[in-house]
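Renewal narrative, Specific Aim 1. Our central claim is that a sequence can be written position by position from structural information alone. The example that follows is taken directly from our test logs and has not been curated for this report. It begins with the structure tokens describing the chain, in the order in which they were read.
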């Protein structure tokens, strides 16, 4: 039975990610309808998603405390209940601040509970070091793969029955998971597979006891290396990604063609997550990290060379390099954090590390917009994004190298 249990748990993490994070990411489809319904400006609507990103990172320590103190059953039920409540409240919203609370704060916490904290805490108990990266990457890819299903569904529901009905459907989808989560044998799942003897050198035991405390973790450089990696990566990605479509349109590209190119980039993102994590597990974590960051930086360079409709080569190089590497660092950072900090307080430690991701996404999008407004162009934005990614590469590469030396 143990042969199939680990990957069944990966599938569970994936499904919960689709039912929470993918639904949250579908907000971009709702923006025009919400703007018309509340007679609001574009910025006052889109800030809802900014709140979701921010709470998704800053709420991770609370999610980590829940899993350490009360276990995986409590974390998953609370997280999925939050996702159902957020979408149900959105369907009943009569004021714009209702969306800020529901889709911003509550949905953001649902994402914090059912993404990195859950997958790292759960899968770290069932997978050895040389297979953990791919398992986490599959779980992390839920947001990208799920978007391919949820976004068209959201668009169809809005077009046929309106945005309130769409959010009611999503609330039912999320709530349907709660009975399953209540009856799963979590105590058995939390024990992990039968112990193997002896442990390999550098391998951390899978059991929940022991491990470093929060105080011990934050006094060591690896904690900050992983936190800075999360934060700087999010700064680099989100400072440029939200502006790419407008950038391409201003360069004269056809809107439908540009949208198809970005759709292909979105399709490549989950493939890149799994591919780079496989390379990290098999060919070296430092090599995979440096290569992933190099692809993203080169992708930004290719985007800068798109000057008009005839620059197809540079456009598709951007799609391949940036799209294929965009989500790859999250599973890498989660893997390194899991291998180093597995133990009784892992949830809280990982939650603190994840703050960098939420703050970085929020600050990156904000600073990227400011740089464009101040300079009237995109050169400063691209330089800023590439610099943040280079610093993140140095930080993550150093910790990945240290992990490799520890495992020898």
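The sequence written for that structure reads:
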């Amino acid at each position: 039975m143990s042969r199939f249990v680990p990957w069944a748990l990966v599938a569970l993490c994936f499904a919960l990610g689709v039912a929470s994070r993918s639904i949250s990411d579908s907000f971009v489809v709702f923006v025009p309808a919400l703007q018309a319904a509340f007679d609001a400006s574009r910025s006052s609507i889109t800030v809802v998603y900014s709140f979701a990103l921010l709470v998704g990172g800053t709420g991770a320590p609370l999610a980590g405390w829940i899993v350490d103190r009360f276990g995986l059953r409590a974390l998953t039920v609370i997280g999925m209940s939050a996702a159902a409540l957020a979408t149900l409240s959105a369907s009943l919203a009569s004021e714009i601040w209702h969306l800020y609370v529901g889709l911003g704060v509550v949905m953001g916490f649902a994402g914090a509970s059912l993404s990195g904290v859950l997958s790292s805490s759960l899968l770290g108990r069932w997978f050895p070091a040389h297979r953990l990266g791919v398992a986490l990457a599959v779980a992390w890819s839920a947001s990208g793969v799920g978007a391919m299903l949820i976004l068209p569904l959201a668009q169809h529901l809005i077009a046929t029955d309106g945005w309130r009905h769409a959010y009611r459907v999503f609330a039912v989808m999320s709530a349907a998971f709660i009975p399953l989560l209540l009856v799963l044998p979590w105590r058995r799942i939390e024990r992990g597979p039968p112990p193997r003897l002896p442990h390999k050198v550098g391998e951390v035991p899978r059991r929940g006891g022991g491990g470093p405390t929060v105080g011990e973790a934050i006094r060591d450089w690896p904690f900050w290396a992983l936190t800075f990696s999360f934060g700087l990566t999010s700064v680099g990605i989100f400072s440029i990604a939200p502006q790419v479509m407008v950038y391409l349109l201003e360069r004269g590209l056809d809107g439908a063609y540009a949208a198809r190119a970005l759709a292909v980039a979105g399709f490549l993102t989950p493939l890149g997550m799994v591919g780079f994590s496989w390379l990290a597990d098999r060919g070296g974590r430092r090599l995979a990290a440096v290569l992933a960051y190099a692809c993203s930086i080169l992708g930004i360079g290719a985007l800068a060379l798109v000057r008009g409709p005839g620059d197809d080569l540079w456009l598709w190089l951007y799609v391949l390099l940036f799209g294929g590497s965009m989500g790859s660092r999250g599973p890498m950072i989660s893997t390194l954090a899991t291998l180093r900090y597995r133990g009784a307080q892992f949830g809280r430690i990982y939650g603190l590390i994840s703050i960098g991701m939420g703050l970085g996404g929020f600050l990156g999008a904000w600073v990227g917009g400011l740089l464009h407004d101040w300079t009237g162009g995109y050169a400063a934005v691209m330089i800023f994004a590439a610099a943040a990614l280079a610093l993140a590469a140095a930080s993550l590469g150093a910790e990945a190298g240290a992990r490799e030396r520890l495992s020898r």
